[in-house]
Specification:
alpha/beta, six-stranded parallel beta sheet, 10 strands, 9 helices, Pantoate--beta-alanine Ligase, Chain: A,domain 2, three-stranded antiparallel beta sheet, Rossmann fold, homodimer
Chain lengths: 289, 289
């Protein structure tokens, strides 16, 4: 816990050596180091990660890097929002001590050829639709954790499959970092916050709420004793498909660790949905119960 | 540098928590940590790595793990020598402070599914003959470096491609460890030390010397002004092929970093050879000049 409640200076750097020196100094001072990897375009979901890191750690590093290797060839790498100055201000207010924003060339120098892959977990759900996405995520997160050497790293539950994969990677590779998953932050009407919500027009945003309705429906059905998970999946899908402009990618109930679709109810489950709403792809999830 | 020249106790453990505690204590005491990953069956080549680590570091960890994922299905995993007590004694004499010998089950627990892959470098030479070998090596070395968090890790030049790949992996993944490559240790007649030399009978051992002769021949030819690298490769191959019982896998002159075969001489080159001698596969290399 930080004993210091005064406003602190935030170091902003793209320099690997400066980052390593700062991390070494914090480590030498016996500080607990937290890391919040982001692609910028920060919203209240990211801020909640930084605030939790600030509450649990002495030295909070946020990373801001729009990682090209996790975008597919048809995806929105070029138009992905990059409001750098606003992001810096938000980090500062959220209690970040160091903002690391490396260049693409320094993260992937000439001759770059190493990739970290988690098998199995990465081919399901999002991985089926975005075949190279998670390889890009695990590789860049491994690099950022090696660079920042945090005690804890914070990820949002919103990207449920991502946090499950990163958790598995850290366990499998014996990385000395605890993965902390923080609750999804939602607008008052239930829409999960996402940098991609900025692409939605008013009609699409209203349709996007069908994902949250499908998740609530699944939770309510389990809560009231429905045991037929196949029937619940069909009801989730129907809830979304009856909404104008929504094309469902998947609607499932799965094991939270293996992400395998479940046939029988079990104590811990997760409902996962993905759909295209107009040109924008949305995902959401909810733990059950 | 260790100021302590008295004999020290060596901790022997298979326990991850005990390893992490010891590393944390050494780190907290400001010690420089060195790591020497091995598969055991230690010979003077391994010992030289440990001695160099002992000379350059305060706290030396040797790891002893016969890694199943780097053996092919037709390879010698089951019969690979495992003289544990003798290995412990050798480590102790060489100045090792901690010997970590994890079980296969603790390194690869149920559900294990993460792999580190270096592309390009791993498909050439040894990788062409042993398609999954280097994926197994990079994955287990990443794990061992994450567990031991060393400032320096020591590898033998004997496995030239391996050290080049591990060097690339550490650079690409921003791992906070310096890779130190130590000179190949040879018998007086030139045979490079290898745990697999134990498989050679007297006749095969004599034939195995042809690999070293081919390397010396390449070096001599470059030294005396030969510019035709294709001609040198042919001469290297002929030197080995004219030896009874030797089946050449490759004989080349390559760039030491990219391992790409060279057509024109350049300041830094490496001669690489591999051959089967009876049932045993031998490799060797020499930097030129």
């Amino acid at each position: 816990m930080s004993a210091d409640s005064l406003p602190r200076e935030m170091l902003i750097t793209a320099d690997f050596s400066e980052l390593r020196r700062s991390v070494a100094a914090a480590r030498h001072a016996g500080q607990i180091i937290g890391c919040v990897p982001t692609m910028g375009a920060l919203h209240a979901g990211h801020i909640s990660l930084m605030q939790q890191a600030h509450a649990e750690c002495d030295f909070v590093i946020a990373t801001l890097f729009v990682n090209p290797t996790q975008f597919g060839p048809q995806e929105d790498l070029q138009k992905y929002p990059r409001p750098f100055e606003a992001d810096c201000d938000k980090c500062r207010v959220a209690g970040v001590d160091l903002l690391f924003h490396p260049s693409v060339e320094s993260i992937y120098p000439p001759g770059y050829s190493t990739f970290v892959e988690v098998e199995g977990l990465t081919t399901k759900w999002e991985g089926a639709v975005r075949p190279t996405h998670f390889r890009g995520v695990t590789t860049v997160v491994a690099k950022l954790l090696n660079l920042t050497q945090p005690d804890k790293a914070y990820f949002g539950q919103k990207d449920f499959q991502q946090q499950a994969i990163i958790r598995r990677m850290c366990r499998d590779l014996d990385m000395p970092t605890e993965i902390v998953t923080c609750p999804t932050v939602r607008d008052p009407d239930g829409l999960a916050l996402s940098s991609r919500n900025a692409y939605l027009n008013v009609t699409e945003r209203a349709s996007g709420l069908s994902l949250y309705r499908a998740l609530c429906l699944a939770r309510d059905k389990v809560r009231t004793g429905e045991k037929d998970l196949a029937a619940i999946r069909l009801a989730m899908r129907a809830e979304m498909e009856q909404t104008p402009g929504v094309a469902v990618d998947y609607a499932t109930i799965a094991d939270p660790d293996s992400l395998v679709e479940l046939n029988e109810p079990q104590p811990r489950m997760v409902a996962l949905v993905a759909a295209r709403v107009g040109p924008t792809r949305l995902i959401d999830n909810r733990l059950i119960p």
